[in-house]
Specification:
8 strands, 741 residues
Length: 741
């Protein structure tokens, strides 16, 4: 797909900037890596082995750690008299097996190779680390520090580490210490001892965030912006110029592109002249602006509250009546402009076309709201039509002179942002293909794709029972399209499933099959039905979310092998989809990570980390935070910077003054008006408030040397001469300043 770049001229500059930036990143990567290794060693020495907990799904109500499945039966702390820690307590608890089924409906504990393959997925309690990571070795410590530097969930990590025991390893983190509990921590006899270093921990986290994020990672953005600015200067021929010379060239380009303003022509009919003067007056525009503001305020009073039907009815009537009143006012404005300007001049103005469209939309809205019969269009279309009324507030921008610079910056930036957006979509498409190919079956539950039979022939469920094809919203599942070629067991057809219990089946608590999420689903907290890689479309949306930095690390952790955190509760080696049949037996994929098997756990972790690291740095830092910001900052510097000798506001002021003498926008005015134009123009283009004698003004006219074309001067020539004078004054000042010193 990258070959498309060669066919799009507009994207070549963006791609060239990207490739010019990448070679400079390794040198900053080495610096970041050095500090990361240093801090990783510090955190590993202080908190290594101190973040683990006892994973006990059947006895976990969140008493000690509300965000993890931490056992209620293990009290956080260390017993000094016996030397027993939380790990010892966890391993001393009696083992039990969760009731879990694979995609064929077979109980995992009934598998012949249960001890070698499936023990990890059913036998509990187990000692594990939290899902966000740990500091047990250099690799995991560096990974967790990178995520903290990326500001992803760092408060939760910091607060958890602040509860780590200060003296003993293999003690679960907990916020309450022995001293805070008056010597009796959590047990009547006060056997458990627990002490923390919360303020030192917080200081280390804040120090790493300031250094790792605000300094080191943001240097990547600085490199991208520097490369972008250098390429812009080279492409525009400004690389060998000084700042003043560059500003002059950019101002000349802006001046050449400018055109004089025009005033509407008055009508020939005498009876239309009063209307023309009315709609062209500033007072009329101010009244219309006030009406728009009041209309917007009325649109803000909508309230959606199910317990106040009478209030809602009153507000609905008020909104409907106010909508009709404002529709009448906008229609009156449109008719007045039609009579004063005429239809041809009215529709030549883009703002008038915008007003006309809103009037038509409001008329359609009122007509449909007044109809008591069934509407001929879908309700969603009507809601969109009503929402378009809010766009009226954009008319305020027409008179918002202070916002003209920002509006112009956005307008000029759109082509560049479009090119960067296309490149971003192209890269997201490539990464979406990779992630979909590797992780499409992760955390799979039979029925996710809507292609499954009711019960597999060898399922533990009663195969003689008829298939339950009904769909109940209480199960929170998806409708299933049955296919005789695919033999998977739906969770709702397993004995004592959530679906069956909701529909009246009585079961003991330990008989229900275990699923991590409610309603019989293996989805997790991060990799779930809203964010996954089961299809290209949802993968594309998930990757866009990751590019913005929203919980990308949590999704990455869910793609790790089953021994990471509590991942084993959401997958198993035969819990993926059935993809083929060999010798009449179904071939079932693993639903754990990339599905490569238990012996490749380290490789799977490195694969997921490498893909997410490359994607996040490339899309998140280089493109979103680098190129996007570079385009906007560059355009704002060229258009709205106050450091330039001639800004956009100065040029607009010249156009406004020129309009007083050239109402038709003919580009020429009488040369006799040049002196008046200079006196009305503010500095730096004009003389503004400066008091000058007539002799000085005549000398200024001679200095400008504006060509006279038979008693007329040209718009572009006049603006060019005035801007050149402003830049020359600055250059002369800079040249004389060192001599005076």
């Amino acid at each position: 797909p990258l070959r498309l770049v060669a066919r799009l001229e507009s994207m070549r500059v963006v791609v060239a900037t990207l490739f010019r930036t990448l070679p400079k990143l390794p040198q900053f990567g080495v610096v970041f890596l050095g500090f990361q290794v240093l801090f990783a060693i510090v955190f590993m020495q202080m908190f290594g082995g101190r973040l683990g907990y006892c994973l006990d799904p059947a006895y976990a109500t969140g008493a000690w750690q509300p965000y993890e499945l931490m056992s209620d039966r293990v009290v956080p702390g260390y017993v000094s008299s016996t030397g027993r820690n939380d790990y010892d307590e966890c391993m001393a608890l009696p083992k039990y097996n969760l009731t879990r089924f694979d995609s064929l409906g077979e109980r995992l504990t009934d598998k012949e190779d249960w001890a070698e393959t499936y023990r990890l997925f059913t036998e509990f309690p187990q000692w594990t680390n939290p899902s966000f990571g740990n500091f047990d070795n250099l690799g995991t410590a560096m990974l967790l520090l990178f995520e903290v530097a990326a500001l992803e969930g760092w408060p939760d990590v910091m607060f958890a580490v602040m509860g780590a025991d200060a003296a003993q390893k293999y003690v679960s983190p907990y916020w309450l210490t022995t001293k805070q509990a008056d010597g009796k921590l959590l047990t009547p006899n006060g056997e458990e001892e627990h002490d923390t270093l919360p303020w030192l921990t917080a200081f280390l986290f804040v120090l790493w965030i300031v250094l790792g994020c605000f300094v080191l990672l943001n240097m990547v953005i600085g490199v991208v912006l520097d490369s972008f600015n250098r390429m812009q200067q080279e492409n525009e021929g400004l690389a060998m110029m000084t700042d003043a010379q560059s500003d002059w060239v950019k101002a000349q380009k802006e001046i050449i592109a400018k055109r004089p303003l025009k005033k509407p022509s008055p009508p020939r009919q005498a009876w239309r002249l009063p209307y023309f003067r009315l709609v062209c007056s500033d007072a009329f525009d101010l009244v219309v602006m006030a009406v728009i503001v009041v209309n917007t305020i009325f649109m803000m009073v909508d309230i959606y509250e199910p317990n106040s039907p009478s209030t809602l009815q009153s507000l609905w009537r008020l909104g409907f009546i106010s909508n009709c009143v404002f529709f009448g006012l906008y229609s009156l404005e449109m008719l007045l402009k039609w009579m004063g300007l005429g239809l041809r001049q009215y529709f030549k103005d883009a703002w008038n076309v915008f007003d006309f469209s809103l009037v038509i939309i409001t008329a359609v809205d009122i007509a449909f709201a007044s109809m008591q019969t069934e509407l001929p269009i879908p309700g969603g279309v009507l809601r969109v039509v009503r929402l378009l009324r809010v766009v009226r507030v954009l008319r305020l921008l027409k008179r918002a002179k202070q916002l003209q610079t920002i509006i112009a910056t956005v307008r000029v930036s759109m082509p560049g942002l479009r090119n960067i957006g296309l490149l971003m979509c192209l890269l997201m498409y490539i990464f979406a293909i990779f992630f979909t190919q590797l992780y499409w079956a992760t955390n799979y539950t039979p029925g996710n794709f809507g292609q499954t039979t009711c019960t597999a022939p060898n399922a533990s469920a009663a195969a003689a029972e008829p298939c339950d094809t009904s769909f109940d919203n209480k199960a929170s599942g998806a409708p299933v399209a049955f296919n005789a070629d695919v033999r998977e067991a739906l969770p709702q057809n397993l004995p004592c499933s959530y679906f069956r219990q909701v529909n009246g089946e009585v079961c003991a608590a330990d008989e229900a099959p275990y699923y991590f999420s409610s309603a019989d689903s293996n989805w997790g907290e991060s990799l779930n039905r809203h964010a996954n890689f089961q299809s290209l479309s949802i993968a594309f949306l998930t990757l866009f979310r990751c590019a913005t930095g929203e919980s990308f690390n949590l999704i990455m952790h869910d793609l790790f092998p089953p021994d990471w955190g509590d991942n084993m509760l959401r997958c198993c080696p035969t819990c993926g989809p059935v993809v083929d049949y060999e010798g009449g037996e179904p071939v079932v994929l693993s639903s754990c990570g990339a599905g490569w098997g238990a012996s490749t756990g380290v490789l799977e972790t490195l694969l997921a980390v490498s893909l997410f690291f490359l994607y996040y740095v490339l899309l998140g830092y280089v493109i979103l935070n680098g190129l996007f910001i570079g385009v906007i900052v560059d355009n704002f510097t060229n258009i709205g910077s106050d450091n330039s000798d001639v800004t956009l506001r100065d040029i607009e002021a010249f156009r406004t003054v020129w309009l007083r003498y050239d109402e038709k926008g003919s580009f020429v005015v009488s040369s006799q008006n040049l002196l008046a134009i200079l006196q009305q123009l503010p500095q730096p283009l004009g003389v503004g408030d400066r008091t000058r004698s007539r002799a000085d003004l005549l000398a200024l006219l001679a200095e400008l040397n504006i060509p006279d074309h038979g008693g007329y001067i040209h718009f572009n020539e006049t603006l060019t001469a005035l801007s050149q004078r402003a830049f020359c004054e600055r250059l002369n000042h800079e040249r004389l300043a060192p001599r005076q010193e």
